[in-house]
TrEMBL record:
Keyword Transmembrane helix: yes
Localization: Membrane
GO aspect biological process, one term: phosphatidylserine catabolic process
Coiled coil: none
UniProt-recorded Gene Ontology molecular function terms: monoacylglycerol lipase activity; phospholipase activity
Name the UniProt record assigns to this protein: Phosphatidylserine lipase ABHD16A
Alphabetically ordered keywords of this record: Hydrolase, Lipid metabolism, Membrane, Transmembrane, Transmembrane helix
Domain of life: Eukaryota
Enzyme Commission code(s) on record: 3.1.1.23
Taxonomic classification: Eukaryota, Metazoa, Chordata, Craniata, Vertebrata
Pfam families for this protein: ABHD16_N, Abhydrolase_1
First-listed, main subcellular location of the protein, grouped into a coarse class: membrane
Residue ranges constituting the Phosphatidylserine Lipase ABHD16 N-terminal domain according to the UniProt record: 3-152
Cross-referenced PANTHER family: ALPHA/BETA HYDROLASE DOMAIN-CONTAINING PROTEIN, PHOSPHATIDYLSERINE LIPASE ABHD16A
């Protein structure tokens, strides 16, 4: 009976991965040597074959889940309609509650039938035995056997806790349960006295901003967190995960962030290969509808690097909602996992982000200044201009206030706090982060990210002449046009390198630099063009085109 109850309450099993010889040797995530004996590994086919009873019961419960999700999103309109029709009276609500209770009992019966179907299936019984053994004792052998299964990630045991590093237990400066530190936006109206009357006046606007951010705003900004979209993508996500596990020997892990969210990660270790780049770990930060199963992790994987992918809070196996604070909390535990469990030094870690992932990438660079490099692909400087682009002009004040208070993705501000090498990749046909049309390459917010970075690091070089010539270079949308602008100003790269190296040797590497302060206008123009070309590469593609492995390069540094 205990096993039957476990089958009723157990998670849904999706796939049984093929046994790999490399699994028998060692586990990527080291654990205690003790293990609980469990049934031998499965030799069945990679696809889990549910019995008819389980299969049909799963279909009914999945359909009920979809209907519940649709009802949840449409509930405000439904309540308004029912109120107008007079259906919210007590005489109408009581019978409806009886129907709802009956439906819940029927669904509970379906769940019990599904449990019976699982109980009659030896594949599922073996799986549930291994899962229960792993929850009792997370030994390396138990976790190795559990990794052969792909199932509902909510039942996966936690592999790494945000407080696990001993340095954090002893330090008071680390993150609290409220979350890691973020840069806070400046007040919209400086110098205004923060009196009780002013607070009361602002209250309606603050309530409206909160409601917009937590309903429409968050789902527009992170559509990948919408359950219906995830449900539609489930087959593709399962295929992508199977590819990472079976072909790349990937290892899945659950990380517990300081806010209580559980973060779904996948690690591919290339340190044992002959390729030298395998010693470097690339932490990948996905876009607003991206998942590590089918996202930008494929680019550094093809290039031969070790890779750690993770899903945003609320995406696939990760819990929570993707607000900036939760995003930063998730990124923090991912970096800690890479350092303290996977054994990579910060100097061997590269942060790579695509699109909106630039926020967590720049936060990690700001918070972990010793990381090796940052690569931002198709990213932007600030969310406000892009939010204003898609909303009515009459909503400008509300949109700006909502973004600044609740959805403040201030990538450029965070990136300027980082001292290490940076590479920006600009899509020349980007239709997402341009504020006008894709053909208007000067409206690409990647340009603003570059300009803000260079103006912070080299303020004297990026004075009037330097700023003007870099803008001229940014107008080029092809390699031929780029080369034409570059040759027009006769940039002497050897001279530029010697100037920068001499300054670094005399004043040290910390930015901002005052190089170019006593330089001629022509010299500043040459330096500005040289630095712009080293910090930004063009990629002739649209926003969602996968980056080719040959375009994935480490940033330039002196």
């Amino acid at each position: 009976m205990a096993k039957l109850l476990s089958c009723v309450l157990g998670p849904r099993l999706y796939k049984i991965y093929r046994e790999r010889d490399s699994e028998r040797g060692s586990s990527v995530v080291p654990e205690a040597p003790t293990s609980v004996s469990s049934p031998p590994s499965s030799s069945w086919d990679t696809y889990y074959q549910p019995r008819a009873l389980e299969k049909h019961a799963d279909s009914i419960l999945a359909l009920a889940s979809v209907f519940w999700s649709i009802s949840y999103y449409s509930s405000p309109f439904a309540f308004f309609y029912l109120y107008r029709k007079g259906y919210l009276s007590l005489s109408k609500v009581v019978p409806f509650s009886h129907y709802a209770g009956t439906l819940l009992l029927l669904l509970a019966g379906v769940a019990c039938l599904r449990g019976i179907g699982r109980w009659t299936n030896p594949q599922y019984r073996q799986f549930i035995t291994i899962l229960e053994a792993t929850h009792r004792n997370q030994s390396s052998e138990n976790k190795r056997q559990l990794s052969n299964y792909n199932f509902d990630f909510r039942s996966w045991p936690v592999d790494f806790h945000w407080e696990e590093p001993s340095s954090r237990k002893e330090s008071r400066g680390g993150p609290s349960r409220r979350g890691v530190a973020l840069l806070r936006p400046e007040p919209l109206h400086r110098g205004t006295a923060d009196t009780l009357l002013n607070r009361v006046k602002k209250l309606p606007c603050q309530i409206t901003s909160y409601l917009v951010a937590h309903t429409l705003g968050r789902r527009m900004l992170y559509p990948g967190s919408v359950y219906l979209l995830q449900k539609a993508l489930m087959p593709v996500l399962l295929q992508g995960q199977a590819r990472l596990v079976e072909e790349c020997n990937g290892r899945r892990a659950k990380l517990l962030a300081c806010d209580g969210n559980e973060i779904d990660t996948m690690f591919v270790d290339r340190r044992g290969t002959a390729e030298p780049q395998g010693q470097k770990l690339v932490i990948c930060c996905e876009g607003n509808a991206g998942f590590y199963e089918v996202g930008c992790v494929s680019t550094p994987l093809e290039a031969g690097y070790s890779v750690l992918g993770w899903n945003h809070p609320g995406f696939a196996g990760s819990t929570g909602v993707p607000f900036p604070q939760n995003e930063a909390n998730a990124m923090d535990v991912v970096v800690q996992f890479a350092i303290h469990r996977l054994g990579f030094q910060p100097q061997d870690i590269v942060i790579y982000a695509w699109s909106i992932g630039g926020f967590t990438a720049t936060w990690a660079a700001m918070s972990y200044p010793d990381v090796s490099a940052v690569i931002l692909d198709a990213s932007f400087d600030d969310l406000v201009p892009l939010a204003l682009k898609v909303m009515p002009d009459s909503w400008r004040g509300l949109v700006t206030r909502t973004v600044r208070q609740h959805l403040n993705l201030n990538n450029a501000e965070q990136l300027c706090r980082y001292q290490g090498p940076v590479l920006l990749i600009r899509r020349t046909k980007d239709e997402i982060i341009t504020t006008t049309v894709p053909e208007d390459i000067m409206s690409n917010r990647g340009n603003d990210l570059l300009l803000k970075l260079l103006q912070h690091r080299y303020p004297c070089v990026m004075a009037e002449e330097g700023l003007w010539v870099v803008r001229q270079w940014l107008e080029a949308s092809s390699q031929l046009e780029e080369a034409s602008v570059y040759s027009q100003w006769e940039v002497d790269e050897d001279w530029c390198l010697s100037v920068l190296r001499s300054y670094q040797a005399e004043h040290g590497p910390d930015f901002p630099w005052s190089v170019g302060e006593d330089m001629s206008a022509d010299g500043r123009r040459q330096l500005a063009l040289f630095l712009a070309r080293k910090h930004l590469h063009n990629f002739e593609a649209t926003h969602c085109t996968p980056l080719l492995a040959q375009n994935f390069q480490m940033p330039w540094h002196l």
